[in-house]
Design brief:
Layout (H helix, E strand, L loop, with lengths): L13 H13 L10 H12 L20 H19 L3 H6 L41 E2 L4 E2 L11 H19 L2 H4 L5 H4 L7 H10 L21 E3 L5 E10 L5 E15 L15 E14 L13 E10 L25 E3 L19 E3 L3
Parallel strand pairs: 2-4, 8-9
Antiparallel strand pairs: 1-4, 3-5, 4-5, 5-6, 6-7
């Protein structure tokens, strides 16, 4: 019998039979394979849910790139702004200066130079600090920096902190209290001074009745005569700091160095519309004070709880008047009390040097290079 026979009884050749056996073992190249039961189940489920197929847990769809058109526009505008600032530097003062400008970093030590000059601008009743460094200073007590409290001498840290707070309270009561600025007696400030300090109590007793060069309330307090001077607005700008060290007999010695800027106008001046009230309507009286206070150990010094003794006091003042003491600052409005051109020029905003002599004799006066 041959190698194989066809259904019609014809025989196959040996070569065809051998090829048939080989393909039966290896499988034909194009022969379909029987799918597994799992594959058939998956295919059936996918056919039943043709829409919204869940993404495979190993798939990753890359995010579409974001359009950068907006950033190109922002970059172009920023470049134009830098060019404007570079070629018109004075414009930045108008954009970022004035009463709403952010205050500089709080003063924690004596600066090394005076603040930079500002664009010359006249003050108005709405912006009484315009055109001066004080425009960016903090207001009121916020401009007086208080250091971190640590134990010193007879006081622990909590007591030092309390003394620092009361020291600043004195500066507020003597140089910022509205009623005191309008000529009232500074009772709250006086109550913080050791009543047993005889020389200071003698000054306080006579200074408000009969002011003189030796006994002048302006040595410790800021006051304006309400019949002559009005304060402009409710804000006084300040810049300064408190420092402390151990003093005599283990006392806590606190030193205050603060500049106060008072915008004022003549009491009968007009201009309540917020504009300029005249060429010389608003004057800024600038006072820098240095006061050294001693919080004494009651076991070693006669004192009262919550009071300090004054070690020293001195101040510098510009645009506050010259001549015999009256107990009030007398700002020069218009041609009244104009400072002699030969007077010593000072920059009242320069805090880089120590405070000078406070007491001004009748023939001494200072002329501010800017106000």
């Amino acid at each position: 019998m041959g190698a194989g026979t066809e259904p019609d009884g014809s025989s196959r050749s040996d070569e065809e039979w051998e090829r048939f056996l080989r393909e039966s073992v290896a499988g034909a190249a194009d022969a379909p394979k029987e799918p597994s039961a799992r594959a058939r189940d998956v295919a059936k489920r996918l056919r039943a849910e043709p829409e919204g197929r869940p993404a495979g847990w190993r798939t990753y769809t890359p995010a579409r790139p974001k359009r950068r058109t907006g950033w190109y526009v922002v970059g172009l505008l920023a470049s134009l702004a830098l060019l404007v600032v570079a070629f018109v530097p004075g414009l930045t003062a108008g954009l970022f200066g004035g009463a709403d400008a952010s205050p500089p970093t709080a003063e924690t030590e004596r600066p090394t130079q005076a603040p930079p000059a500002d664009e010359a601008q006249r003050p108005t009743t709405d912006e009484p600090f315009r055109g001066s460094p004080a425009a960016s200073w903090a207001s009121g007590a916020a401009g007086i920096t208080t250091p971190k409290a640590e134990a010193v001498g007879w006081m622990n840290a909590a007591e030092v902190e309390r003394a620092l707070t009361r020291s600043r309270d004195f500066l507020v009561a003597s140089g910022l209290d509205r009623e005191v600025l309008e000529g009232e007696r500074p009772e709250k400030a006086i109550s913080l001074i050791n009543p047993h300090q005889k020389d200071v109590q003698a000054l306080l007793k006579t200074a408000f009745r009969t002011p003189s060069e030796k006994n002048d309330p302006l040595l410790l307090f800021s006051r304006f005569q309400p019949s002559r001077t009005d304060l402009v607005g409710d804000v006084v700008k300040t810049r300064g700091r408190l420092t402390y060290q151990e003093g005599e007999r283990g006392a806590l010695q606190v030193t205050a160095d603060v500049t106060f800027v008072y915008p004022v106008t003549r009491a009968d001046a007009s201009g309540d519309d917020g504009g300029d009230a005249g060429d010389d309507a608003i004057v800024r009286t600038i006072v820098r004070r240095e006061l050294v206070m001693s919080w004494d150990d009651p076991d070693k010094v006669i004192t009262e709880p919550g009071t300090f003794s004054i070690v020293s006091y001195k101040y510098e003042m510009t645009n506050g008047g010259c001549g015999a003491p009256t107990g009030y600052f007398n700002p020069p409005f218009g041609t009244d009390g104009q400072t002699d051109a030969s007077a010593t020029e000072v920059d009242p905003y320069d805090r880089s040097a120590p405070v000078g002599q406070g007491e001004l004799s009748e023939d001494e006066c200072r002329r501010a290079t800017r106000s």
